[in-house]
Every structure is written in C-alpha cells, then in structure tokens.
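Appendix B, record 7
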Amino acid sequence: MGNEEIITIYADGGCRGNPGPGGWGVFLQAGSKAKELWGGEADTTNNRMELTAVIRALEALKRPAIIEVHTDSQYVQKGISEWIHNWKRNGWRTSDKKPVKNADLWQCLDKLAKEHDIKWLWVKGHAGHPGNERADGLANRGIDELLAKDSKSPKLPKY
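Structure tokens (predicted):
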C-alpha cells in the first residue's frame, strides 16, 4: 500500500421535510481528478439520504482503494465505525431488541466498505468546509431536480 493515491469522498444527504423529498450528493477527489454525483428520492428520510450518498460514492469506485470519507452525519460515521458490530452480532437488532432502522442500507454499506481501506471522518455541517458544502449543494441539486421533474409530470385524476 506504499504510494497508493488516497481517494477523498465528501458525502451528504438531506430532506425537505423528514420524511419528505430527499437528495444525496457526493464529491470525490483523487489527485487532480474529481467527480460529482447526486440524486433524489420522492419520499425518504434524512438518514437514508446520508447513507445513500456514501453507498453511491463507493459503488462508483472501480477497484479497492484507500479512502477518506468525510460526512457531517454522526449517524453514518458512528454507525459504520462503532454501532454496526453489535447490530450484526445481535441479528440486526438494537440493544433494546428493536430492528435496526435502515438495515437494508447498512447491510449494503457494510458489504461495500469491506472492499476498501476506509477512514470515516466526521465534519461539522454548514460550517464552511469546502468539500462538505459542495456535497450539500449536490444533495440539494438532487432534491431540486426531483421536484422539477415531478412538477412537469402530468397529474392523473384519482378515481
């Protein structure tokens, strides 16, 4: 692993209403190369969008890599680096025996993360961090594009 290039990922997700229309955004950097990804979902939660952002970032990678993931979501950062071990041991149940919320996404993220050497870093949201602000803008773009597309769709009468 000597001189391998580190891939830096800034991931963010959000909703307008929670639940409500949501978006996720990713800014990836590897040396002089950069890539932006974004998308949206009509009826979702903030936490699902935060997880989706990281999942989409890892899915975009073509081979195992050394990665730094920057997220403003303590849910994502603590979930993947601390809580997930007990969830898996307890059959995807919390310490109070309730099903883990968003287990489908946690299981997907767990599988993808195993392919890489990842450092999970929390950054304070909306604090002027350029990478995080860019990911936030992309997440909002995902929501905006989703809402614009929905407003152009013909509304069928309900019978």
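Remarks on this record: The chain has one domain: 6-152. The longest helix spans residues 130-152.
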